[in-house]
Amino acid sequence: MKELLTSIRRTPYQSFAVFSSLILTLFLSILLIFCLNFLYGLLGYVESRPQVAIYFQNQVSESDILHVKEQLLSSGKVESVKYISKNDAYNLYKQLNKDNPLLLEMVSPDILPASLEIFAKKPTYLPEIAGFLNSVVGKDEVNFQKNIVDKLLSLTLAVRIISISFFSFLMVSTIIILMTIAHFKVALKRDEIELMRLMGASPGYIRKPFLNESIFLGFVSSTVVYLVFIGIVLLINPALQSYLSGIPALFVDLYGFKLTVWPISIPYAAGLYLVIAFFGVGIAALSTFLATRKYLSIERT
Amino acid sequence: MIQFDTVSKLYPLGNAALSDVTFNIEDNEFVFLVGTSGAGKTTILNLILGDLYPTSGSVIVDDQDISSKKYTKLEELRKHIGVVFQDFKVLQDKDVFENVALGLRIQDLSKNKIREEVKEVLSLVGLEDKKQHFPVQLSAGELQRVAIARALCGDRRIILADEPTGNLDPKTTWDIMKIFKKIEHERTIIIATHNTDIVNSMKKRVLVLKQGKLLKDMQKGGYEL
Which residue numbers of B have CB closer than 8 Å to A's CBs? Predict the structure, then answer.
């Protein structure tokens, strides 16, 4: 550790350049990871919502509605149908607006329509189901969410492609910058390296202090980035919570494990740190490894 | 033991640095390599160190035929060879202690062992009171002593010195040679030099080289070209 700190102290500008490049890259990376996970969570949430909903006029009886439900279930194209009576709708409304007595006073069960929420077996069945529902006598409105899902899916895909491209570019350029800086550092120690090789040091032994230093800088940078990111999130959390108040907890499926990405859960926060620390240490170590390889691949002539 | 058996070395442009050179150097022997510039002295040292491949013939060091071994396969051997250069090659950003300890750190010795051994070897070369000095604070003679101390540290049984006194005045030259004399029965010492006085005075074995050929091999010889 003492040698490592001495080396950083003796080459402060190079160390600072490594540190600042890593900070920038890792901060953008953590931001991208966070946004992508949020979007995936949102997509999962929207997909889990009823894909088609039919609202009935007031005069339609419950038995007629249940008949429509039976018809849908017998079509073989529907995964499930949920009947929401006027009372159920009123209870839901009360729960959603429990903090607003004025809104509660204005509404009674009579004015809320009964509805069916339908989940199709495949998204391709949705237009057909919607077509059938539109022909039902006594329908008030049919809500068909396919467009929202499709738009969100294409948005997520676009963000994913842009993120991966941007992330790859960021990684490659950072590795090149770090390699160039590592080259400077190695060049400064060329005499020492030459001497150590003559005295029997292995390439691994010579590379070790350079690698240790880069791993240390990678670890420190990722920790700083993580703390700053979490600090920013905590700072704007009240504003974010209020802005995203309509969106409940969002999850992403991680090999069968449901990870809560919004609001940020402790496992997610820990995972973010591990990922960003792995990236920080990984790219710093890889750049140094590549930079030192040139100086250590000596052959007899 | 070091054995050269009909060793030749051709450099890529075709110039012959060594031609059919054969000699043996026993353990703990003191040998001078003499000859004009380009005679092949440094090539011999580099062949012993495994820095160069011989074009033909075999080089055996410590019972190992190193003629065709890769550079990376010679690390263990190099841990037993100390090298002293004309230009000292003392690291400017390290103090005397750190410079001397370099070879010991490579051998993965404990900090206490390194401290003890550096102290011992600095006392041998007369620099025990300058262990925290940086190279800029030392004279040329002191720098060469640091280089010798570094070459002696650890279990380095063979000391190769390439013109170790080439940059030094006569008095300092003799101080340096006294250090070599102190250790002459403990290690194999091979010194490439142009210095007539020291070769003639010390009466050690002399290998005379001329244009890559071994002209003479004299026990207790003098400087002859």
Answer: 12, 49-53, 70-72, 74-83, 89, 91, 93-94, 102-103, 106-107
Q: Could you give the CA distance from residue B211 to residue B36 in angstroms, rounded to a whole number?
A: 8
Based on the domain organization, do A43 and A96 belong to the same domain?
Answer: no
* Residues recorded for chain A: 301
Backbone φ/ψ region at A219: left (φ over 0), alpha (ψ -120 to 50), beta: alpha
What are the φ and ψ backbone dihedral angles of B51, each rounded to 5 degrees?
Answer: -85, -25
Final residue of a structural domain among A144, A170, A188 = A144
Q: What is the ipTM of this complex?
A: 0.84
> Looking at the complex, does the CB of residue A202 fall below 8 Å from at least one CB of chain B?
yes
Distance from CA of B5 to the nearest CA of A (A): 19
Same domain? A249 vs A192: yes
Average of per-residue pLDDT across A226-255: 85
Q: Are B27 and B19 in contact (CB under 8 A)?
A: no
**Contacts for A279 with CB less than 8 Å, ≥ 6 apart:** A26, A29, A222
Strand-pairing partners, residue A142, are A54
The last residue of a domain, from among A144, A172, A191:
A144
Distance CA B71, CA B53 (A): 9
Q: Which one-letter DSSP state was computed for residue A114? A: P
Per-residue pLDDT reduced to its tens digit, A185-222 = 888 888 888 889 888 898 888 899 899 999 999 999 99
> Residue B12: exposed, middle, or buried by beta-carbon count in 10 A (0-12, 13-18, 19+)?
exposed
